[in-house]
Design brief:
It is built from three helices and twelve strands. It is an alpha+beta fold. The strands form five sheets. Strands 3-9-8 form a three-stranded antiparallel beta sheet, covered by helices on one side. A three-stranded antiparallel beta sheet has the order 4-6-5. A two-stranded antiparallel sheet has the order 1-2.
């Protein structure tokens, strides 16, 4: 983590990750790839179907048909889903989409993190709506566009 955070009870689901400092829009919050192993989408899907805890708990889309797994003790594993998240994930790099206040729960759109099959499917804890992963091309295009717009919007962006 590149910011101060705290894991505590979440109003969304189970435990969540909360900011312990103000996080300005565009700030790099963490990076899923540091210390992680890269696996293929086929390995990710198989691991999810077989209930491999390490993959279920830490597996996230890296880019294309590649996923990162590992870092089970990392606080970022407690980032909960939101259809309107305050964080953006692009190729394992996690940035604040907007200013985040101290004490605010950090959230990501899980559709950008899982595969499009039903094997790694989740339901949103607040709405019950299904969370289905987006195809690799749609994911990278969507996150690249959001990243460009975010960096362009932040005048003094330094990461």
């Amino acid at each position: 983590m590149f910011i101060k955070t705290e894991v505590k009870d979440s109003g969304i689901f189970g435990k969540g990750l909360f900011a312990r400092e103000p996080v300005p829009a565009g700030k790099i919050v963490c990076c899923f790839t540091l210390g992680s192993e890269v696996i293929t989408e086929a390995e990710f899907v198989r691991g999810c179907a077989e209930g491999v805890r390490r993959i279920l708990r830490t597996g996230t889309r890296y880019a294309g048909k590649y996923y990162t797994v590992g870092n089970e003790a990392a606080p970022y594993n407690y980032i909960n889903h939101s259809f309107e998240p305050n964080l953006l994930s692009h190729c394992g790099l996690i940035l604040a989409k907007r200013d985040v206040e101290v004490g605010e729960e950090l959230t990501l759109d899980y559709r950008l993190l899982v595969d499009p099959s039903d094997v790694a499917a989740y339901d949103d804890a607040q709405t019950g709506r299904p969370i289905r992963g987006l195809p690799p091309k749609e994911t990278i295009l969507r996150t690249a566009r959001e990243l460009i717009a975010l960096v362009e919007r932040v005048d003094d962006w330094e990461g």
